[in-house]
Amino acid sequence: ISFTEALQHFQSAELSTSRGKVRAPGRRGILAALLRCLRGPPRLRPQLRGEQELALAMAHCALDDSERVHMRILQTIYRQLTRSRLGCPRYGAHWEELGFQGRTGSSPLPGEMPKIHSNLPCNLPVLSQLPQPLPLSFHNAGIVVVFQNFPFCIMSVNITRIVIQALQEERLSRECNRRQQVIGVLNDLYAAAFLRLSRLWEQQHGTVADAAFFLKELELSTKKKPRQLLKSLEAYLSR
């Protein structure tokens, strides 16, 4: 399935349950509003609110085995990452090879938004259960990363969580307003964050034990300096 077709599916779907989970930005007091006007990020333009709501609802949409489009998306992820021309069974060890926690291709899920806390070591055994070694090639927007022992899917889901949180906290409003789009900004920022992760992983010879530290750094960069991350991606792709 193409990205455009998948997006059109979610645009036409009701997503009432997922939309009910979307939290609007909290109301601010007069002082907070004044500080925002002076030096804070701008609010998202009204005409982009619908696209923001759709993106947040999609993030809360759980995988449904009975939904054909969901299954096509899952198959596409597998084929793109493995460069296989064939599909794969719905269940099996092949999902663990991509860094999922189980054999279903549905754990973790973007809708579940799992978080690896830097102060909770109980999360790290999940990472250590990934196949060792795990050679992996990641192709997205021209980025190619090949690493050993790289917890691809767990890091991918957490980067998704970070980007979605940045949108929800209106950290991306300036860039979304400038480009007059939301989902395009999210996609590019996701790729930019993964590029940043690949550089950290390579420079510091990362292991699964470093995952929480890297995610914390990515969260700070994504929320505090999204434009800098995007420029880094643009420079990388231009070369």
Automatic annotation (TrEMBL):
Pfam families: ELMO_CED12. Residues 69-226 form the ELMO domain. It comes from Leptocoma aspasia. This is ELMD3 protein.
